[in-house]
Every structure is written in structure tokens, then in C-alpha cells.
Amino acid sequence: MTKLHDLIAARIQTSGPITLADYMADALMHPKFGYYASRDPLGAAGDFTTAPEISQMFGELIGLSLAQAWIDQGQPSAFALVELGPGRGTLMADILRASAKVSGFVDAARVHLVETSPALRKKQADLISGPHTNVTWHDDVSTLPDLPLFLVANEFFDALPIRQFHRATAAEGSGWRELQIGLQDDKLVAGLSAAAPISFLEHRLDDTKSGDIVEHCTALAAITENIATRIATHGGAALIVDYGDWRSLGDTLQALQNHATTDPFANPGEADITAHVDFEAIAMAAASANGGAAYTRLTTQGVFLERLGIVPRAQTLALHLSGDALDAHISAHRRLTHPSEMGSLFKVLGLYPTNAPPQAGLEP
Ligand code: SAH
């Protein structure tokens, strides 16, 4: 068992069962033993792979969509180019390379990265910082500069801690039973609290029945409201890419280690733990932010990338490839866009000012 397992067990022994959100916060972000604190989890040798690690085309097209939004909003002469949870920095490097062809964009960009992991900050610095790119890191969105904000977040929101609620049956009481992590024979185990009404789930009483599960990401609203207020006040645009859907329903908690699923409670700190993203909650938080930002329709990753021209881009890149490299390129394109791969599971939501057009690739 991991050191973190013992720390969490000791905490439960002293003060009782903890929420799933508290458990995830420790398992992922504990400063010493958390999953993201000390390692690079990405790539073939890690636990999971993400779209920017699969093909450069992903970041190139995201970069061009952001650059088009910048043009549509009058090319502000200084703006913050922001990424939440940049991983190895591959996506931002691809954005900067592709958008360098858009006159004035990179010169006006100040790169700001929101990243808590020291190990990944170092990777990002190696890949992105240089004599021509000044990078500033932030622990969270609250310290971002007061500038127009052109932002991307790929597989960031799925890593934020969630609480999970099970709709109670009539015999169990009214309201919801919350998933809690407790101790059994020194092992961490999940159980359910007694039923209680939950004020922020009142609206879910209409569309759920006994036994249904809904998940609630605790930090999502505050992060989204912060970003949306900046976009409403200073201009800009956000592209949020993740797996999930419009409105949370069902148990989507998942732990991955070495590219295989594992028990989320067995080895805290050793496995990546994620949940599907509730895009409706992001849209509602954006709309209710101070000043209110507009949101696009939720679009699948496959459709988004095709609308931005991934097919001609893939053909151009293919001209220079042959043999195994060509095969890998073709299968990477398929992985990003095909409905049976990432094309449908992953979705894209855009946030933008109410007086500007929606982002390229996300038009109605
Ligand atoms: N966007 C990258 C990496 C996704 S992994 C890619 O597509 O490849 C999730 C990233 O979010 C990691 O960089 C992780 O360290 C970071 N992260 C997770 N939770 C965070 C939090 N609460 N605050 C800031 N960064 C976080």
C-alpha cells in the first residue's frame, strides 16, 4: 500500500469517512505523494495518452481557431494566451508554431499556464520557454492578468475532484446518498451516506429516479465563472475539450494505470483518477458569470476538427511520409476523429463574448 493510502487512512480513522472530492484532491494533488505532483503520466510509457500527444494536427487546428477568434475581435495588441493543465506543453507548442503564420498573433500573445505539478511545469518550460516566448505559471485562474483571454483546456476539467450522489429510494429517505470513502480492515472502501436533501441538486429531482447517480465537480463553477467574467470584461475566447456530455448522469469515475483501468481506491497517488465532464454545468456557470459569457453548442471533437480542416491538413502532412510513419499518421488522424475512437466521446464547448461570433469549428 502507498504512503498516501496510510495518510488518508489515518485521517479517516481520526475524523470519519471523507467525500470522493476530498479523496480525489489528495490522490491527484497531494503536494508530495499526489499522482500529478511528481511524475509525467502521459504518453506510451505513462498511464494515458491525450489528443495533442497523438498528433500535432490537434494543436495546430486549436491554434488556428483561437487565432481566428482573435482576428474576429479586432486583433487586440496584447492578450493572454492561456492553457489550463498543459501536461507536457505539447499542445501549447503546436498552437504557437501553427499560429506563427497569423500575422501579429504570437507577438501580441503573453503565454500563461495554469499548472500545479512541479514535474510538469518543468517539462512545459523545456518545451515552450525560449528567447521569444515568455511564460508565466499560475497555481489557479485567479491570478491570470487582466487582458483579453484566449484559452484552451484539454483534459483539464476531467481531473478536477467530484462528489458523487445516488438518488435515494423511498425506503432510504428523501434526497441523495453521497459516496464516501471509509475504512474496512485497514483498506479504503467506498460506501454511501444516509439520505439527505442536497440544495444544488434540486433541479435534478425532475429528470432522475431512485438509484440514478449524478456527479458534481466542486471547483468547476468557480473556475468557469472566473474565466467567463474575464472574457465578458476584456474579450477573448475559451475552447474546452474533454470527455463527457451535456448534463451528468451515471457513474463515470475511472482510474487508469499503465493504460488499463484499476480500482480508484486501491493505490491512491499511483493511478490517474478522472470523471466525465458535465458541460451543461460549464455553460450555466459561464452564462451566470458577472457580465455573462455566451457559449457555443456542444460539438463532438470529430466534427470540430473536420470543420477546421483536419482532412486537408492530414493530406498535406501525408505527402512527406511513407511506410510506418505514414501508417502511424493515418491511424492518429483516425484516433482523433473517428466516432468509435475519440471522435464522439470527446466534446468541445466554446465560451465567447456576447457581442462576438462563436469560434471557428463551433458555429451553429
Ligand atoms: N492538457 C494536457 C494534459 C492533460 S492531463 C494534454 O492534453 O496532454 C491534466 C493536466 O492538468 C496535467 O498537466 C495536470 O498536472 C493538470 N492539473 C490537474 N489538476 C489541476 C489543478 N487543479 N490545477 C492546475 N492543473 C491541474
CATH architecture annotation of the largest domain: 3-Layer(aba) Sandwich
How much of the sequence is in beta strands?
15-25%
Class of secondary structure makeup: alpha/beta
- Order of SSEs, N→C? HEHHHEHHEHEEEEEEHEEEEEHEEHHHHE
| C-alpha Rg (nearest Å) | 21 Å
Bound molecules: S-adenosyl-L-homocysteine
Please give the CATH class of the largest domain: Alpha Beta
Number of strands: 17
In round numbers, the mean pLDDT is 96
Largest sheet: 9 strands, mixed
CATH topology value of the largest domain: Rossmann fold
**Backbone shape:** globular
Uncertain runs are none
Report, as a whole number of angstroms, the end-to-end distance.
50 Å
What's the helix and strand layout?
Layout lengths: L2 H13 L2 E2 H10 L21 H4 L1 H17 L6 E6 L5 H10 L5 H4 E6 L3 H11 L6 E4 L10 E6 L7 E6 L8 E9 L2 E6 L20 E5 L2 H15 L1 E10 L8 E4 L2 E3 L9 E3 L2 E2 H10 L5 E2 L3 E2 H7 L2 H9 L4 H15 L4 H4 E7 L12
Parallel strand pairs: 2-3, 2-5, 3-4, 5-10, 10-14
Antiparallel strand pairs: 1-7, 6-7, 6-9, 7-8, 10-17, 11-12, 11-13, 15-17, 16-17
Helix pairs in contact: 4-5, 8-9, 11-12
Fill in the keyword field for this structure.
Rossmann fold; globular; 364 residues; binds S-adenosyl-L-homocysteine; 35% helix; alpha/beta; nine-stranded mixed sheet; five-stranded antiparallel sheet; 2 domains
Protein model, in words:
By secondary structure, the chain is of the alpha/beta class. It folds into two domains: 3-34 and 163-215, no CATH class; 51-159 and 217-246 and 274-352, Rossmann fold (3-Layer(aba) Sandwich), CATH 3.40.50.150. It contains 13 helices and 17 strands. Strands 2, 3, 4, 5, 10, 14, 15, 16 and 17 form a nine-stranded mixed β-sheet that branches. α8 packs across α9 and α11 packs antiparallel against α12. The chain is globular, with a radius of gyration of 21 Å. It binds S-adenosyl-L-homocysteine (SAH). Residues 36, 42, 50, 52-53, 85-87, 91, 114-117, 120, 154-156, 159-160 line the site of S-adenosyl-L-homocysteine. S-adenosyl-L-homocysteine binds at residues 36, 42, 50, 52-53, 85-87, 91, 114-117, 120, 154-156, 159-160.
